[in-house]
Structure formats: structure tokens, C-alpha cells
């Protein structure tokens, strides 16, 4: 299928599909005229990429683990090297720290708003 249909089917913009290709995450086929040709397995791979990106993983880490997740030879973390898992844990921990900081900021704003309501006649 051409890029427009692949975009519609996957829910990923054509621009993102081109970006995934530029990053080496997908390799669509080509029609004789040079247009990209997306098969179902590439669309399935795009859906995995999208899910991983939405979880916050950077492209560099996705590129590292993606072959084992989409080639059908290994399931889940069995094929993932310990270094990768360490990086994912580190990323998760940094994310948790950011969430905690944002929660503290929200709590401070809530306090401010409560106090401002009390002061408002």
C-alpha cells in the first residue's frame, strides 16, 4: 500500500512514517516508480514503534530492541540484553522523578489557589 493508505491504516502521519524510515526503524518496499510500498508486516511494526514512542522511550532505545519484538523469533524481554533493560529502568526512574516533581508543583499550585479563594472577597 502507498504511504497515504499506510498512514490511514496505522493512524500515523505520512511524515512520521518517513521519519521512522529515516531513523532506520522501518524499511518499506518500493514500487517501480520509487513510491514507498508498505506491507502489513511494516504496518504492524509501525504500530509497535508508535506504542513504544508513546510510552516515552527514545528512538535510540527502540531501534535497539525493535528487531526482537517484531521479527517473530523472540517474545518480549527474553531476547533483550541486560544493558538495554538497565537503560529502560534508568529511563523509567528518570520519568518517575519528573512525575514526582510535577506532582509537587501541582500541589503547590493547588495550595495557592485554595489560599487565593479564601482571600477573595
TrEMBL record:
Gene3D superfamilies: 1.10.1660.10. This is MerR family transcriptional regulator. It comes from Streptomyces marincola. GO terms for molecular function: DNA binding; DNA-binding transcription factor activity. Residues 1-68 form the HTH merR-type domain. Keywords: DNA-binding. SMART domains: HTH_MERR. InterPro entries: DNA-bd_dom_put_sf, MerR-type_HTH_dom, MerR_fam. It comes from the Bacteria.
Amino acid at each position: 500500500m502507498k504511504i497515504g493508505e499506510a498512514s490511514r491504516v496505522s493512524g500515523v502521519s505520512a511524515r512520521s512514517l518517513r521519519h521512522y524510515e529515516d531513523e532506520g526503524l522501518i524499511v518499506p518496499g518500493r514500487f517501480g516508480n520509487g513510491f514507498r510500498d508498505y506491507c502489513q508486516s511494516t504496518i504492524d511494526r509501525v504500530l509497535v514503534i508508535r506504542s513504544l514512542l508513546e510510552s516515552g522511550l527514545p528512538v535510540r532505545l527502540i531501534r535497539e530492541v525493535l528487531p526482537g519484538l517484531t521479527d517473530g523469533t523472540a517474545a518480549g524481554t527474553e531476547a533483550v540484553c541486560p544493558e538495554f533493560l538497565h537503560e529502560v529502568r534508568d529511563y523509567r526512574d528518570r520519568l518517575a522523578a519528573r512525575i514526582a516533581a510535577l506532582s509537587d508543583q501541582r500541589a503547590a499550585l493547588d495550595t495557592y489557589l485554595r489560599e487565593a479563594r479564601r482571600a477573595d472577597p
